[in-house]
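haha ok so turns out i had the wrong file open the whole time. this is the CORRECT one, sorry everyone. sequence first:
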Amino acid sequence: MRLSTIAGRLLASAAIFGLSLAKPLNAQAKRSASYVVAPKVFIIDMFPPEGDIWYGIPEFNLLEHNITVPGLSPLFPDVHCTSNGEICQLVTGESGMHPRSIRWYPPSMLGLTIKLEINAASSITALTFSPLFNFTRTYFLIAGIAGVNPEIATLGSVTFARYAVQVPNPSQLAPVALQYEFDPREIPANFSTGYIPQGSVVPSEYPQSIYGTEVFEVNDALRQLAIGFASTAALNDSAAAVAYRANYASTAAYAAGASGPSVVGCDVATSDVYFSGSILSTAFENTTKLFTNGSGVYCTTAQEDNATLEALLRGAINNLTDFGRIIVMRTASDFDRQYVGEDATFNLLYADQGGFEPAIQNIYLAGIKVVEGILGGWNTTFAAGVTATNYIGDIFGSLGGVPDFGPGSAFNDNPVTVKRSKGKRNVYLRRSSI
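then structure:
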């Protein structure tokens, strides 16, 4: 597509987007209570194949009630709900674009999907603060595909995260995504990677300045229930995935990658860039361990989760959402690194891994079990909420409690309940390492 055409469509969409934002929210807030939807489960998908898998299913019809929400993506301006409003769904728009996912988009959409790196944060913020919904008892199911670490899981696997960790955006020209970056050809001989946490001087040193979005921790008791529900699903697979994962069988460390798909509890790394290869994947595996004080298990790579969780956390600070009711589910579409003897570029760009279609199918196959489990146990378990036995929240301790990662609470173990006039751009920490 010609750049002038893309630019024209971007400007036109921006104009429409601006008009939607200009609608007076205070007028909508005055609507009667009958207009306010209070979902029990809200599904968050990131791009059309993830969203479309929920349409036309026998269990419920998400297209019975469509609600246009100011501030959502101009490509996906509606929230879709069942007629009774118990289940709703949103497509946020991607944080970036995977080379293999371009085929799912018509040319007219590419100009708007590539490089819109804040889609998830923008859409979920608009959703959370919309007066059209009551999310105080809603369970949010983040349901998308991801890259996968063959040391932990395999193509088609369904993963549930306790931690979401923000890792760098490779190949950028500035210190981004909370780390410094040096070209690997110019790093010292004793460095294992060119990525160094911000404010630190070596890769293994904990970040000395933090922004608050580095790590989120969700309710592990709820996660375990979700894992139990999803484990009853018969997962999809493909002949191509069976053939491709067999290449990993010769390496003992990749035994999980060579096995069939399963349901796994492990953690997600968020980056705007799709990276590939053993060197980068190992570096970000180490980042996950470092940022979680050694307790995180890196297994999936995604683009949106930390942005989504930050928006939901800000809603929780304002008593609009319950951060203890969030489930982060990612299904594995492709390996984050090559097998022995394969080029990293071939693994990312050319290999027929066969994991995309099973990953999309397994969003529904596993996700529907989670949705049904919550609805089926609503009166006995879920209406009142699942009590968290672990810390939940961000690295600052914004919701109260003391994080079991990072330097400890920035708010003296108290939740953020009032507006603070003196904020900090960075929080500088003492040096430590694991």
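The CA atoms of residues 186 and 194 lie 8 Å apart.
again sry for the mixup
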